[in-house]
Amino acid sequence: MGLNVKSIQIQFLNRISDLIPKETSMVVVLSDLLNVSNDSAYRRMRGETLLTIEEIILLCDKFNISFDAFSRKETGLVTFKYSLNEHRKENLLEYLQSIYNDLVVIANSKTSSIVYACGDVPVFYHYKFPEIASFKFFYWLKSIMNVPEFEDASFNFEIVDQEIIDVGLKIIKLYEQVPSKEIWTDSTIYSTLKQIDYYWESGMFESAEDAVKVCDSLALVIKNIQKCAENSAKIDLANAKEQEANNYELYYSDIEIINNCVLVKLEQSKAVYLSHFSFFTMSTMNDVYSDKTEQWLNVLIKRSLLLSGVAEKQRYQFFKRMFQKIDNLKSKILPEEPEKPSQKAEDEKSDK
């Protein structure tokens, strides 16, 4: 059976329409990029005039999407976009900027939402708290990206450039605007605790106090998420706009989540982000793959317990376990000294 070229072209241009700001006219975008009249742009949007190969390449390059996602739907072949992992600090900044750019598109979409299966604590939350944010950035630069200038460095809170911190803060502000469902397990916090523990055991903290500060900052991240779950909102309700007052659902799953998986739903299309190389992501807007991912996430949610808004007892117990894991690591790093007996007790022991 032949391809329905008209239908494919309409889907392709609808996908691009999802990627432009909601106040921007698709007709204007097409006419400017392709150097055609508004009438010619409308004919392409309706599928009456077929795009040329040159026009398809121009649009794919401009919006960083792949055309084969539309022409090869049932073949089992999926094209992913990913970031190159180069051994330089600037690469992290570029990667964070790409996340920010994607979130700008998502937040500006007419309708958008995120479903996040959390193998790790979503990195966005760390950016709000400087100590854990600095640690995470340092860990990525040193242990994941193997940036040469960090090879022999020990962690301190001033070692990461402020520019990287600032982009992280811009990212969390955008993430807070997008309605989201997050699925957590008891292991979601494990990788971050393991990273702190490994650096402590390896002597990469300048002091035990610095390691404890990072643990305390992680506790603030968890406390913030607990507050979001209580309010069913990702930001302070007192400062929330109407559309942000009920934009967060937190689920607890007994089923282990091995890898971070994020489904983004826009007005006419979907995208899937998967973690790879430890913390980088690769993404696709392939319809079939996105639909299959959404089906899997829906099943996972049905088998999970909703902790936000309701289930107060279960929510308290879940976060109590999280805080206990952090306290256990702090006790390992900085054990409490046994209480010394009072002088009176010593005197009484001597008299006996």
Q: Which terms would index this structure?
A:
52% helix, 8 strands, 434 Repressor (Amino-terminal Domain), alpha+beta, 2 domains, single chain, 352 residues
Could you please describe the fold and organization of this structure?
The protein has 352 residues and is an alpha+beta fold. The chain is globular and about 100 Å long. It folds into two domains: 5-71, 434 Repressor (Amino-terminal Domain), CATH 1.10.260; 81-333, no CATH class. Strands 1-7-6-5-2-3-4-8 form an eight-stranded mixed sheet, with helices on both faces. α2 (26-34) packs across α3 and α6 packs parallel to α9 (162-175). It starts with a helix and ends with a helix. It is 52% helix and 10% strand. It has helices at 5-18, 26-34, 38-45, 53-63, 68-71, 89-108, 123-126, 130-144, 162-175, 190-201, 208-231, 287-302, 312-333, 343-351; strands at residues 81-82, 113-117, 180-184, 248-252, 261-265, 270-276, 280-284, 305-306. 33% of the residues are buried. The protein is built from 14 helices and eight strands.
